[in-house]
Amino acid sequence: MPRFTRRDLLAAAPALGVAAVLARSTEARADQPHMEAALDALKTARRELEAATADKGGHRGNALRLVKQAITEVERGIEFAKRH
Question: Helical H runs in the chain?
Answer without folding.
Answer: 6-31, 33-51, 59-83
